[in-house]
Amino acid sequence: MQIKHLPSGLFPHFDSGFERRPLYPKCGESVIIGCRLNGPTKKINILLHWKSGSELMPVMECQDARCNDIEQWYYTFTIQLPDSLSTIEYWFTATDESESVVSQVYQFETLQEIVLSEPSKTLCQDNKVYAIYHTEKASYELKVEVNQNISIFFTSYLTVKVVDFQEFDEISY
After folding, report:
1. FRET label pair with 115: which of 20, 92, 97, 168, CA 20 to 30 Å apart?
2. For the chain, how big is the Rg over CA atoms in Å?
C-alpha cells in the first residue's frame, strides 16, 4: 500500500485528485487536500493529520472517496486554516487489516495579502522606470521598460500576494 500526494498536482488547470487546492492558500481559507492510494484497497481507514505552527490540529477523516476505472482510490479532505499567518504541516496515514503506512510530511506557509503603499524610491532613466517598495519584512521592485514593446518586471515572494499598490506620479516619454 502506498499513499500518493503531489501538492501542485500534475497540471496547473487539471484536477489530478491528489493535489492541494489552492496550492498557496490564504489565512482563514478552506483547503482541499487529496491523495491516492496505490495497492490493496480492501477495508481502508485513511486519515489526514495536520499542525498549524506547533499546535496539533484535530485529525480529519476522508470526506469523499472515489475509485477510477483502474481500481485506484482517491480520497479528499478539507481543512480550515487559522486566520493568522502560520506554517502548516500535514501527512496521511492509511491502515487496513494487514498494514499501516504513513506518508511523508508536507508543508506550506499561509499566503499573506498586502497592499504596497507609496514607493520609497522611484527612478526614471532612459525608457525605464523603477519603483522600490518597502514593507517590514521585504522589499519589492517594479521595473517598467518601454522600447518596441512594454516589459514589466515585479519581484515577488511565493507566500505573499500583492493585491494592490499605490500609483506613483505619471511619467511621459
Report:
1. 20
2. 22
